[in-house]
Amino acid sequence: MHVVPPRxxxxxxxxxxxxxxxxxxxxxxxxxxxxCLAAGAEAQLYRDFVIASADDVxxxxxxxxxxxxxxxxxxxxRGMEDRTLRVPAGFHVSAFATDIGKARLMAxxxxxxxxxxxxxxxxxxxWSPDPDTTSRVLxxxxxxxxxRADTVLVAADGFLWPxxxxxxxxxxxxxxxxxxxxxxxxxxxxxxEKREVxxxxxxxxxxxxxxxxxSLLFDEARGIxxxxxxxxxxxxxxxxxxxxxxxxxxxxxxxxxVWATGLRNAIGYDLxxxxxxxxxxxxxxxxxxxxxxxxxxxxxVGIVREGSFHGWxxxxxxxxxxxxxxxxxxxxxxxxxxxDTLLVDSIQxxxxxxxxxxxxxxxxxxxxxxxxxxxxxAAFIALRAGNRGVSDGYKVxxxxxxxxxxxxxxxxxxxxxxxxxxxxxxxxxxxxLESDSRGNLxxxxxxFTQAIFRVTAGPLLAQWGRGLPDSVLAGQRIAGEVALTRxxxxxxxxxxxxxxxxxxxxxxxxxxxxGDGRFRFEGRIGDEVAVGxxxxxxxxxxxxPSGPLTISLSRRFIVLPSRDLVLLGDELxxxxxxxxxxxxxxxxxxGGGPVFAGQSSAAITAAPLRRSRVWLLExxxxxPILTLGYRxxxxxxxxxxxxxxxxxxxxxxxxxxxxxxxxxxxxxxxDYGLDLARKEWQTIEIPLQEFGEFDGPVELVSxxxxxxxxxxxxxxxxxxxxxxITAVLETRSDAVPQSVSLEQNYPxxxxxxxxxxxxxxxxxxxxxxxxxxxxxxxxTLLRGLRTAGTYQVRWDGRDAGGQSLASGxxxxxxxxGRQVMTRKLLLLx
Length: 829
Description:
By secondary structure, the protein is mainly beta. A hairpin with a 6-residue loop joins β17 (245-250) and β18.
């Protein structure tokens, strides 16, 4: 059965009245309509979002593709003062040309001169052309091969809104907004004075019309010229059959036909260097949203074949229907037909999906060996825009995939145009991509900074080996690999060293060669290394006849504790100070009373106070400490000669710079073992989540009370581990909460199994997933409809394939209806 589109909240007219050719069609479509209507205005059909390979997702799944890490490092942009971009280690960035206007797509002309289409705008608006047709194609020769254009020459002018330029069989072709122009340079002076309209009547400017730029690509092997034509709107039914398509022509401009449809704005495309197939990207529609408010849909990258349909205006990604609960979309597209469902059913899997609203522009296959084997035949994509509210966009990414488009991943390659991901400040917008015969990559930016950047690879390149963890344990071993992907052929054998000073080690630890250009580092993390981020730096050196070569790799790990952090034992913990006030005598470490563990305990002697007053005992760390990797505050308490009275208070507080103080009164602490009537040691362990979410370091742990007399406290510590629990099981209680909640897993960290608890105030469709820190979903713990109640799910630390996961930090995310909640957990194998 074909279920036509989810999240429809109603029909203004018989939506499926047309294109019904049989009773069977009528029954199928009517059933689909009933399924949509059954969702209702409040309980719309659920839409999930995952980070997963396109090979693994089911039709209808909303997803973005997993990422890989190319170990980007900050690199000053040569020729631009105070500008820095991030590229892989050993790469460099320079300004190839500046002051070139609104630089769009590029191509190599005769004598290996780079040409770029440069738009002129009307009164500076990025969306409006100069009606005086002052746009140009610029030539940027680099005769001395110094990596910077010698001059900026006008190769052709008099265009309205040129987006692309190409050279084929001695002629230059320019994609203007309404036509393709063919030009010749008869006298060889570099200016193309002879011109003719090669293809006319392309989708062009008119009031309220969108997507009026065109891209062109010559496929000489198949004898085809491809021209992209975008949609006239955000999402609608087109009257012009060539809108939202890639249109094909014979190489002489004849035999005009639509090659592929359903492509809202396929600006970038290129031929795969091995298969010869056409790969393209496409910009998604605007008004759709994830249930948690994030923008969608994800941006498409896939293979285009003759007659293929790619979704617009009905669907996106891999057969995911558009959200037709958006009134404007429903008005523009309904009624739906049987042909619509057949078209959506025909959509093939994309190669990758990129984050929504990142605006993919040029797509360029890189065929050189210069950037190393990992990037050879990668599809580089320029992202001109940025996802609203998050840091995606304004960068160049590499799509890494098999030749047939399977196993697609995405890796950041050139970033830094938005220096602060939390800020909206942007200084460049990548559009065009080209590489030269020596393997250098050129990136055009058409706004804020109007320039072309040149990315080069040095003679020495290295990258981290795969499988490195995100986190490491204090006092434990750290190890991994580094691979050399390029070395100077005339140089000596490279040497590599690791700087482990952030981990309590030495600054020069030699790496050991293990063959095939791979080197291994090993070291031990100091017991006293602070919890939190620490940086590992690898330096690669090679001596050559022309001088020494040096590059550096850096990677941040999260150091996690491997043992409890003691605030108070036989003495104060290292780095901790204590103080008391308001009626409590100074803390006496050797109180002379009962001892819980070790040689002594601390006595607190408090004078009688008015019941509204309290005494205060504080523990302060220097410096403040992170609670990452700790799961509970534990202490031993002996009431001593305290006599319980009505109105007794015993508060426990943990405070950080960014977290409000949370108090646990006697009744709450009693739930964890406190009983003033029992004249014996009592162990009290309070999970840290009881104190709220910590976004910063802990500055203070305090106890306050109105109890009078002498009492004792011992073994105050932050607990790092707990005995494992067994079995993988979902259970439910009948207690109905006030709102959706997701608790911190317990124990955390865990090394065998852990429990995740959540609560539902009403019947909800629920998905509970686990992700690693690269955004890949490793398993789904629960999916489906659940009634109101409190649930707990036990997980044994295995992925969806039943394999044990590596130690590290993982995210578990609960989606209940439209609410999404995420927490971190720590797995220690």
